[in-house]
Design a protein that fits this description.
The chain is α+β, with helices and mostly antiparallel strands. The chain is built from one helix and four strands. It has one domain: GSPII I/J protein-like (Pantoate--beta-alanine Ligase, Chain: A,domain 2), CATH 3.30.1300.30.
């Protein structure tokens, strides 16, 4: 009498491998998306902090800037940033509209990406 060996057939093993491969690809995609989202949130947060710092610096100096554009390069959080400050006149001569746009710059190329924008109004601080 022959004893029948117990175990998995080749088809069963192949089906299990396909299921494992699909699950692994889905898991890797989810992890990649989570890491990308976390990186983007870090960039946005730092960009917003920079814009707010630039506004507070302007406010604390007591300057009432004239219309025009000003660019400034800074480093924060291990990244290089460019801040563009645009001052525009308003219908009220005692008020200015100020926009701060923060760009993340990449040292290996001439590319940059807009990360945050802050728009506000400022009057004389005296």
């Amino acid at each position: 009498m022959k004893s029948r060996s117990r175990g998995f057939t080749l088809v069963e093993v192949m089906v299990a491998l396909v299921i494992f491969a699909v699950a692994s690809v889905s898991l890797m995609r989810s992890i990649t998306m989570a890491v990308d989202t976390q990186s983007r949130l870090e960039e946005i947060t730092l960009g917003q902090w920079i814009a707010e710092n630039e506004y507070n610096e302007l406010y604390m100096t007591g300057q009432f800037p004239g219309p025009g554009e000003n660019k400034k390069n800074i480093q924060m959080g291990g990244y290089d940033w460019r801040v563009v400050r645009k001052v525009k006149a308003t219908t009220d001569p005692a008020m200015r509209r100020i926009e701060f746009e923060v760009f993340m710059t990449f040292s290996d190329s001439f590319k940059e990406r807009s990360v945050a924008t802050l728009a506000t109004f400022l009057g004389p601080t005296q």
